[in-house]
Every structure is written in structure tokens, then in C-alpha cells.
């Protein structure tokens, strides 16, 4: 199995892409620490994932929470962290004329500050070699009406992966980002979008369907393992052709 005896941390893993990633990692032999802020949701996910999974309630944007998470992970599994997936993130509609700086900053604080704290606080607990995967988005490169905060936050995540990669390459720590297009997860509930609206959006995807979260997890697994050992500072598009194929 690809992750036999490895220890992985996946933030924001109670639902969606994070949950699918934790599930795939377990099936590849890893022990996995999952996090999220809502304890009930997180423990329900951990129960589904089985005994190789340890849930730790933690806000990715809180350095103190993340320090506690890594300490708990290393003590519980008695080894350093081999794979870190900084996946926790939120999406909000933020039309410029109706969005205060405080609301704008809330998205940036979770999606960018959260990734920064997740990686920074992990450093003392990371094994050498280790692989870090940051979950960005297709939105990093596409201006989207009413989503300036989210788009800006994801552009920052792609950029952070490259600078982290530069800073950690001599430590044997690889850092890459992944940019999903549209994946069918509860993030769209938080935007008040129905599944029918999601399927409407999907019509512009060359593959004509949203991704199953497991398809994003498969690409995260690739970046997590030795299969990608010559990659660092890269951004991997997993978007059904949206970024690479012209609609004409
Ligand atoms: N679905 C898509 O189409 C899509 C496309 C591109 C990129 N992405 C990115 O993929 C990642 C996962 O999204 P998803 O679609 O799987 O959404 P999701 O199902 O809503 O999952 C988000 C997860 O993050 C957790 N979370 C949110 N804020 C957190 C925080 N401050 N600290 C810790 N955990 C936090 C949530 O749990 P709690 O609320 O309990 O904390 C939940 O477990 C996000 O970064 C998102 O931007 C998604």
C-alpha cells in the first residue's frame, strides 16, 4: 500500500474533499489525524473512517489549536508527520459593494491565515522527507463575480505553496498545491446553492459534470506519495478540463 505506516494530517476532514482524502489515505495504510471546528461533525466522520483515524477539534487559523493538534498527533501515533494536507477552507459570496473589510478578512483569515498556521506550526513535527499539499482552487486564476475574497485567498494559497517549497526544499520537504474545479461537496450548501444549481454550473465544464470528492482525493494521494517525488512548488489542476480547454 502507498502510505503503509505513514502518519498523515488532513485539516477540514469532517466532510467533502478532506473526508474523501482521509478515507483514501486509510485505504492506503496510513494513520490519519483529521480536524475541523464542529466536534459533532468531526467525531461522526472519525467513526465512519475507522480505528486508524484520530479526530482533533481545531481551528486551522489558530496557531495554539494547531500546536495542540500536532502534539496530540505525534504523542498518539509515536511518529512524526509524513504527509500534511492543508485542506480546511470556506467559501462566501462577497459582492464588493455589500462586503465590509471585516467580512473580506474573515475569508482571508481562514483560507490564507489557516494554511499559514497549519504549515508553520507543523514544521517541528514533520518527518524528513515529508510532503505537504495545499488545497487551492481553479478560482485562484479566474476572476469570479461576487467571489473576490475567495478568489484572492486561493491565489494566495497557490503562491504560498511555491514560497514554502523554495524555503523547505533543502529540508527534504516538498510542497505542492492542488486546484480543483467544481467538486460535489457541502461547501455549496454554505453558499445556499442547490444540487440543481450545481449541475447547471457543471454544463460549462468540458467533462460536463462536477468531480466526485474521491477524484480530488486521488490527485492529493499522488502529491502525497513518492510517485510525485520530483515535484515541488507545482500546482496541479484537477478540474475536468476547465482551466486547460477553451470553451470554443
Ligand atoms: N468543492 C469544490 O468545488 C472546491 C473547489 C475548489 C477548491 N475547494 C477547496 O477544497 C477545500 C475543501 O472544501 P470542500 O468543498 O470539501 O468543503 P466542505 O465539505 O465544506 O469541507 C470544509 C471542511 O473544512 C472545515 N473547516 C472550515 N473552516 C475551518 C477552520 N477554520 N478550521 C478547521 N476546519 C475548518 C469544515 O469543518 P468545520 O466547519 O466543522 O470546521 C469541513 O470539514 C476548501 O479549501 C475549498 O476551498 C473546493
Automatic annotation (TrEMBL):
Question: What's one Pfam family the UniProt record gives for this protein?
Answer: adh_short_C2
Q: Is DNA-binding a UniProt keyword of this protein? A: no
Residue intervals of the Ketoreductase domain: 6-185
Q: Which UniProt keywords apply?
A: Oxidoreductase
Superkingdom is Bacteria
Q: Which GO terms describe its molecular function?
A: oxidoreductase activity, acting on the CH-OH group of donors, NAD or NADP as acceptor
Which SMART domains does the annotation name?
PKS_KR
InterPro entries from the entry?
Answer: KR_dom, NAD(P)-bd_dom_sf, Sc_DH/Rdtase_CS, SDR_fam
As for family, the record states: Belongs to the short-chain dehydrogenases/reductases (SDR) family.
In Swiss-Prot or TrEMBL terms, this protein is called Short-chain dehydrogenase/reductase SDR
* Taxonomic source organism: Caballeronia glebae
Q: List the lineage, top down.
A: Bacteria, Pseudomonadati, Pseudomonadota, Betaproteobacteria, Burkholderiales
Amino acid at each position: 500500500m502507498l502510505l503503509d505506516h505513514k502518519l498523515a494530517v488532513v485539516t477540514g476532514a469532517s466532510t467533502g474533499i478532506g473526508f474523501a482524502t482521509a478515507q483514501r489515505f486509510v485505504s492506503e495504510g496510513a494513520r490519519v489525524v483529521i480536524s475541523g471546528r464542529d466536534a459533532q461533525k468531526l467525531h461522526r466522520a472519525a467513526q465512519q473512517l475507522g480505528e486508524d483515524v484520530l479526530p482533533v477539534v481545531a481551528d486551522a487559523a489558530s496557531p495554539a489549536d494547531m500546536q495542540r493538534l500536532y502534539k496530540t498527533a505525534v504523542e498518539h501515533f509515536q511518529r512524526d508527520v509524513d504527509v500534511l494536507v492543508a485542506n480546511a477552507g470556506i467559501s462566501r459570496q462577497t459582492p464588493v459593494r455589500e462586503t465590509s473589510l471585516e467580512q473580506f478578512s474573515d475569508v482571508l483569515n481562514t483560507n490564507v491565515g489557516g494554511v499559514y498556521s497549519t504549515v508553520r506550526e507543523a514544521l517541528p513535527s514533520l518527518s524528513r522527507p515529508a510532503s505537504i499539499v495545499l488545497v487551492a482552487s481553479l478560482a485562484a486564476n479566474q476572476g469570479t463575480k461576487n467571489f473576490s475574497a475567495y478568489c484572492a485567498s486561493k491565489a494566495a494559497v497557490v503562491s504560498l505553496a511555491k514560497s514554502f517549497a523554495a524555503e523547505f526544499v533543502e529540508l527534504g520537504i516538498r510542497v505542492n498545491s492542488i486546484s480543483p474545479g467544481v467538486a460535489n461537496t457541502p461547501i455549496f450548501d454554505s453558499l445556499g446553492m442547490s444540487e440543481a444549481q450545481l449541475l447547471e454550473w457543471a454544463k460549462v465544464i468540458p467533462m460536463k459534470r462536477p468531480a466526485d470528492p474521491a477524484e480530488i482525493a486521488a490527485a492529493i494521494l499522488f502529491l502525497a506519495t513518492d510517485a510525485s517525488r520530483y515535484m515541488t512548488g507545482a500546482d496541479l489542476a484537477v478540474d475536468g478540463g476547465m482551466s486547460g480547454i477553451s470553451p470554443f
